Amino acid sequence: MKVYFIGAGPGASDLITLRGANLLGRASMVLYAGSLVPTDMLQHCRPDAELIDTAKLDLEQQQACYVRAQATDCDVARLHSGDPAIYGATAEQMRRLDALGIEYEVVPGVSSFTAAAAAIKAELTRPEVSQTIILTRVSGRASAVPESEAIARLAAHRSTMCIFLSGPHLKKIVTDLRLHYPADTPVALVYRASWPEQRAYQGTLGSVLKETKRKDWNLTTMLLVGAALGRDVQTESSLYSRDFTHIFRVMKKKKQKATA
């Protein structure tokens, strides 16, 4: 038997990868977090699959499911929202599978930060503006953020930042960001990117607290901030410039000279 940690993507059932969907269609047992993975995603499962919502299960209870599957030699699909590599709580599961001698594989998925960028039609990197993206979150009851990675410190880079689960902490986040970013820095809030109830706000660090209500953004909200989000940014990459040559594209004059 084998366990597949599958990135379910940000929410929309058709944003799972083909590999992930195919593995879902083969697994006899499917574990998924019902609080984060929409039930529409389960349409990819085989009709007779055992579906287990892990939202109410602790780690030992989830481990028991793996042991039971091992006893019957059936494959398990473990669905994680977004990509399993980011805030997926997969490492502790893998350690237990290693101890049990159970083989596993990780199938990447579309992260909610890229889905949020798509929702507002934004490119997170711009030439000469920002070539760095910082993915982070604030400390919560389940997982603490090291002090060296506090938002107030990371903001000093003034790169593009994507802050997960930011809704309940919006006021504190904006206060920390304002230590380094100017008030007119573009900011966006995206609630449940790619879900049917998706909604988005776009404004600036100086306006976001005045123009939004905390209760509207409490859960599963991504905050994007940085100068690269600005619609007025005019810088362009040289990659597709007619004067930029590389091994796949040679300037016409050079081509003509070569054939003369």
UniProtKB/TrEMBL annotation:
Pfam families: TP_methylase. Gene3D superfamilies: Cobalt-precorrin-4 Transmethylase, Domain 1, Methyltransferase, Cobalt-precorrin-4 Transmethylase, Domain 2. Pathway: Cofactor biosynthesis; adenosylcobalamin biosynthesis. Residues 2-207 form the Tetrapyrrole methylase domain. GO terms for biological process: cobalamin biosynthetic process; methylation. PANTHER family: COBALT-PRECORRIN-4 C(11)-METHYLTRANSFERASE, SIROHEME SYNTHASE-RELATED. GO terms for molecular function: precorrin-4 C11-methyltransferase activity. SUPFAM superfamilies: Tetrapyrrole methylase. It comes from Candidatus Gallionella acididurans. This is Precorrin-4 C11-methyltransferase.
